[in-house]
Amino acid sequence: MRVVIAEDNALLREGLVLLLTSAGHEVVAVAGSGPEVLPALLEHRPDVAVLDVRMPPGFRDEGLRAALEGRRRLPGLPVLVLSQYVEESYAAELLGGGAGGVGYLLKDRVGRVDEFLDALDRVAAGGTALDPEVVTELLTRRKDSPLDSLTPREREVLALMAEGHDNAGIARTLVVTERAVSKHIGNVFLKLGLPTGDSGHRRVLAVLAYLNNT
């Protein structure tokens, strides 16, 4: 898998390069500042980009802006964004397009190597990988919504769906049967007024689109 990395912290940047190359991926370009990111994406057209949200020169949202512009110019470009903190507005903007191949993880998740590599693979394949803390923010930021009608178990299932887990993964996490998971998913979609199909990552994107546009 060909990867572009954009991270201004030299130690973390080199750590990501070592981690990804050790996992068999090819790092085709690295960027240490915001203005370097988009040219690298357009030149190399990677299979996935790993980008920090805040980068020089302004340390505001340079990485995110580059990610959004990269996805506009290269439709379908998978992007995994890293952030030091849960920044709800950034997560919502990245996810608001309703397309696949997006991820938003806190930087400490990189230290959990297997989780990080699994998230990278899901994003590169067109899926979604959201940090559990980001999911919590998205699920609780609005009041008086149909989300309030979900049972505690249905909210757990919805959160795990948003993180990118499939039915089997949700069943293992909650220690229930896959049949029970399918039933909960059907109830979630029914209560949220969403299509009842639950195949592939499109079900996750439908839920995220609902959360970001209500």
Report on the structure:
With about 210 residues, the chain is of the alpha/beta class. The chain contains ten helices and six strands, in the order βαβαβαβαβαβααααα. The protein has helices at about 10-20, 35-45, 60-75, 90-95, 115-125, 130-140, 150-165, 165-175, 180-190, 200-214; strands spanning about 1-5, 25-30, 50, 80-85, 100-105, 130. A six-stranded parallel beta sheet has the order 2-1-3-4-5-6, with helices on both faces. β1, α1 and β2 (about 25-30) form a beta-alpha-beta unit. α7 (about 150-165) packs across α10 (about 200-214). Pfam families: GerE, Response_reg. It comes from Streptomyces gottesmaniae. Keywords: DNA-binding, Phosphoprotein, Transcription, Transcription regulation.
In brief:
The protein has 214 residues and is an alpha/beta fold. 52% of the residues lie in helices and 14% in strands. The protein is built from ten helices and six strands, in the order βαβαβαβαβαβααααα.
